[in-house]
Automatic annotation (TrEMBL), chain A:
Signal peptide: none annotated. Residues 4-115 form the STAS domain. It comes from Natronosporangium hydrolyticum. InterPro entries: Bact_StressResp_Reg, STAS_dom, STAS_dom_sf. It holds the Pfam family STAS. This is STAS domain-containing protein.
From TrEMBL, chain B:
It comes from Natronosporangium hydrolyticum. Gene3D superfamilies: Histidine kinase-like ATPase, C-terminal domain (3.30.565.10). This is Anti-sigma regulatory factor. It comes from the Bacteria. Residues 22-139 form the Histidine kinase/HSP90-like ATPase domain.
Amino acid sequence: MSQTQIPILRIGQLLLAGLPNELDDLTTAQFGEELAERLVSDGARGVLLDISKLEIMDSYAARMLTEIAATARLLGARVVVAGMQPAVAITLVELGLQLPGVGTAMSTEHALDLLTNDRSTTGGEAGHRVHPG
Amino acid sequence: MVSDDAATPVGAPLIVPITVEEHLRTARHAVRAAAQRLKLRLVDQTKLVTAASELARNCYIHAGGGELTIEEVVRDDHCRGIRLTFEDSGPGIPDPEAALLDGFSTGGGLGHGLGGARRLMDEFTITTSVTPPTGTAIVATRWVR
């Protein structure tokens, strides 16, 4: 069993993690659990997930991300994913999936902007997108 | 049940067993490699691999495993494509039409993912039997654009 360890970093009140190019079911489930524990132990208010490397997101991975965001929200934190590849976004839409409750940003910079400004990022069905400027 | 396409296989098929969870990854990688050989555009590769991932997981979770056959095929009009055949000897799908409809608006991927997988492919045929439970075969093809 190849176990991808996804490091979770803390910077101030934020947790940061970069997801690998592909998520297998076990890794995703373990990551979700570890993230929830870290949210509580580190007292984090926000989570930034860099998904710019992620090449494929099927319904399982999408559901796990949605559940991770819902869990974080219950723990008083918000989740923003940054840098989704266009092909992944197009495929998700065609698959009929959205990421309800997951904030989205074009880049980690925009995600930081979302997380550090006091704006709701989890209200919209498909999240909010921050544009440069 | 009508065959999904009138395409002829090119070369030897690649058979990938789907019996343990790790095989979902193996299946994705094998389909990705086939898509790259045919020089599919990145977005088409992504759609094909995502559909394969959905169908492989169904096969693993709902049918206790099965087998994926990956073929390069060519149509009479010389259009090439990749044909995926998922076969299992599981309990079958009671209402395939309903299974294809669900999951579109759930937003959380709570359905079978069948409808989604069908939207990502050009051809899609389900052959399934519940009584007797002789399993399910899903044949899905994506053409090179």
